[in-house]
Design brief:
There is one protein chain. 32% of the residues lie in helices and 19% in strands. It contains 11 helices and 12 strands. A 7-stranded mixed beta sheet has the order 5-4-12-10-11-9-8, with helices on both faces. Strands 1-2-3 form a 3-stranded antiparallel beta sheet. A two-stranded antiparallel ribbon has the order 6-7.
Amino acid sequence: MIKNNVLFGINDWLFLYNGGQNQFDYLQGKKIVEDESVNNFVTNIQLRSKYCEEKNINFCHIVFPSKPVVKKRYLPDHYDNIHSLYQKYYKSHIGNNKNIFYPLEELMKLESSYSTFFKYNTHNSDHGYFEIVRNVLKRIDRDVDFDDYIDCLEEKNVAGDLAKMASLNAVNKEIFIKFKPGFNIYRTGNRDFIQGNSNDVVVLHNINSLTQKRLLAFGDSFLKGALEFLKFYFKEILYVRSSFFHKDMIENYSPDVVFTSNAERYLCNVESDRVANNFIMALYGDHDFKPSRKYADSFSALMSYKFYPHLYNRWLEGVEEELKDPNYNAS
């Protein structure tokens, strides 16, 4: 059964059906990924890798495996003839570029112990995200180890975006990873001030981080979900919802690490970085965009890191004083 673009699978597992990407048409081979998309993807990754190598920046592009590919066993019989878009169309064209991470094997291996996706949600579970983050960080830091910081596992009854889309009044008991206390993390963003999720930005700063590294992350909601685990490792994170590689933002922010990413379904159609928008100016002059002073000051400070360090440092001093306050609400 398909209802409101949600496919009902075995044991009531829910999957996003087609949507804007028509993902099941591509996963089943009814539609074919065009050569232009493959060439755009490969060229994007090559140029991003080259740019970051020249700037001495660690870089990785993450392709988040599709839920139907990982959870294929829960698809109805006539939908089980699907194939990974990345493996079918892109993998052979990447060559020896080591800056691509497609963690299908890692997620499939973990499936024997924990579900890597939530039942009623498009996105990964805590264990799925944790496995992806653990492996991608080992590419830049072989010694990274989060295990000592895990407090416990806890179960919660949760719904999900797919259940809401299908108008289901249903919840499922899911497992969440809870970390030990001691991480005071400053967070702000513009999500409450924009229509939809275009131009979404998140700023995170952690005075108790495992490293002093700073991350700039370009991607969709899957990468945004991974921030909940990346924030323990990085001193500072600037997340930008964009499929493009914005060199001006990289220059201004001067990160130690750049991640770009996409959910696998976006491989149906990949645009070239040559047609990227000017993200910094995207909302300039929009009278409906009225962000909080906290967000506006934070975004301005991060964009001032390289060329106006006195502005960044003034912001940073205030943030870290706030985080040191024993009454600070870390939630």
